[in-house]
Amino acid sequence: MWKLQHVVGLTVTCLVLPSIVHAHGGAPAPKDADRNTPSERFIHTAPGYDAPGNPSVAPASAPLLSVKVIEADTGELVMCRVNVIGADGNYYEPAGNPLAPWSLQRLGSRITKGPFRYYGWFFYSQGMFDVQVPPGMATIEVWKGFEYRPIRKTFNMPRKGSKNVTLKLERTLDMAQRNWVSGDTHIHLNRRDKTEEARALDLIEAEDIRHGFLLAMNDTVTYTGTMDKQEWPQNLGMSRASIVEQNGYSLSSGQEYRCRTYGHICLLMGDALVFNGDFLNPND
């Protein structure tokens, strides 16, 4: 949390908020053989189950679960993070979800790096989805940052047909009203066009991050001070010119300068890349 009225020029070295790094891209999810370590079992074993579940797809004949997640105070659909757990202990996702690329089994997971507590195999949702789940006792888990009370609801899925569920997500404390602003200074997401920008805004809203800094970064062998040579390029500008807002959530673009001498440095609210246009060895 930052107690700020305005975001001003900041330089942050090696600051990572591990509870909200799920927007961080990286390696594909672990293969089945990699899910047998103690930490993997803990991450993917739902409460009440004895073994870790896997991302699964229900057969075409499975019943349909239709879910709405709404804000308790307003009744409006709410961006959030969700697990749907079938009676078999496995995890199910809706088809056609525009936020699917960032689920934990995809870009939301980095092998050998967090998370290191239970997360199931979550996906992000815009608040309404349909998913096929095997018949029997199923569970929905919903989270949204630190200010909303998590939901865990278990119910019986019929053998055929469908079931409709509406869940009310309650904000227990609005810290922004007390001038505390939740933020993440270290998010790696591409921002090459307006479509990618919109997806990034959806993701930080789902995690209830009031302001997120999307960072381009260089490799640690060579440095070229042009955006086309950066990983996670930020092509829509930097600093104040790059700030956009959606439903009270905002983001801007910055840079992570990586070198072996000083480590990884998060440069926030800079108007241009450091050593703009230069070609150099970042370790010299």
Q: Give the low-confidence spans.
A: 3-36
Helicity, as a percent range: under 10%
Give the overall silhouette: elongated
On the 0 to 100 scale, the average pLDDT is 86
Q: Describe the oligomeric state of these chains in a short phrase.
A: single chain
Q: Give the helices and strands as they follow along the chain.
A: EHEEEEEEEEEEHEEEEEE
User: Might you state the CATH topology name of the largest domain?
Assistant: Immunoglobulin-like
Give me the number of helical elements: 2
Radius of gyration: 20 Å
Sequence-ordered SSE layout with sheet pairings:
Elements: E1 10-13, H1 38-44, E2 55-56, E3 64-71, E4 80-85, E5 91-92, E6 123-125, E7 128-132, E8 136-143, E9 151-157, E10 162-169, E11 183-187, H2 194-206, E12 211-217, E13 223-224, E14 244-246, E15 249-259, E16 263-268, E17 279-280
Parallel strand pairs: 2-5, 3-10, 11-12, 12-15
Antiparallel strand pairs: 1-16, 3-7, 4-6, 4-8, 8-9, 13-17, 14-15, 15-16
Structure description:
The model is unreliable at 3-36 (pLDDT under 50). This protein has 2 domains: 10-22 and 182-280, no CATH class; 36-169, Immunoglobulin-like (Sandwich). Strand 15 and strand 16 (263-268) form a beta hairpin. The longest helix is centred in the last third of the chain and has 13 residues, at 194-206. The chain is mainly β and 284 residues long. Strands 1, 11, 12, 14, 15 and 16 form a 6-stranded mixed β-sheet that branches. Helix content is 7%, strand content 31%. It is elongated and about 65 Å long. It contains 2 helices and 17 strands. The protein has helices spanning 38-44, 194-206; strands at 10-13, 55-56, 64-71, 80-85, 91-92, 123-125, 128-132, 136-143, 151-157, 162-169, 183-187, 211-217, 223-224, 244-246, 249-259, 263-268, 279-280.
